[in-house]
Specification:
Layout (H helix, E strand, L loop, with lengths): L8 E5 L4 H13 L5 E4 L8 H7 L3 H5 L2 E3 L2 H4 L5 E5 L10 E2 L1 H13 L4 E5 L8 H4 L4 E3 L12 H16 L17 H17 L9 H14 L4 H21 L1
Parallel strand pairs: 1-2, 1-6, 2-3, 4-6, 4-7, 5-7
Amino acid sequence: MPTDRPQPVFVLVRPQMGENIGAAARAMWNFGIDRMRIVAPRDGWPNPKAVAMASGAGRLLDEARVFETTAEAVEDCTYVYATTGRHRGLTKPVASPEQAMGDTAERIGSGGRVAVLFGPERAGLENDDIARANAILSVPVNPDFPSLNLAQCALLTAYEWRRATETITAHTVEMAGSDWATGQEMEKLAEHYEDRLDTAGFFFPPTKADTMKLNLRNLWSRMPLTRADVQMLHGVMRQMVRWKERGE
């Protein structure tokens, strides 16, 4: 059974290749969408090539609903987006995937049922399909090469749905089992290097020593070091000192 999470329905209109249906299923499930409807698939249904391409998302194909016409596929929906990049001579609101999925989230949150139509690979949706939609979803692609295959378009739309409905962490750091170094640990590291470099005569001439030490402190403060990093840098300096002493 499909999950009980509120979400849009992805309607594949007259898809031509089973592989593309399977790839679209994978793209949908990557971002948590599992409601697929298929209108008049060219090679019939079920399609073993779709199952092979879907890989771990085969459940979506098992639960996909098949319809003869686009009208039947969206008859229970309160709002429909049609994905197309071409001007069809029809007056329709046109939204980016980001805006369309934000709007979809609001409509579904208010109890609506939203469908997104995806056209066949070769020519896309026909005017008769688009006329049944309330608005157009248009991906801002390169105008010199605007063609997107079925799975690509499903992936972009599903990704924007995920962004509109989930808390996305924009940036994080994998700490690999360590913690950030504390101010005290950074201070000890700075003192260690300053002391050893002073002994080695690095801060020369004496008139520039204070500025050089200040710059070195500033360098440490700009470096986001972990405790493991600090321990390693202490070890580097200790080994260099031992190597110097052995050579004397």
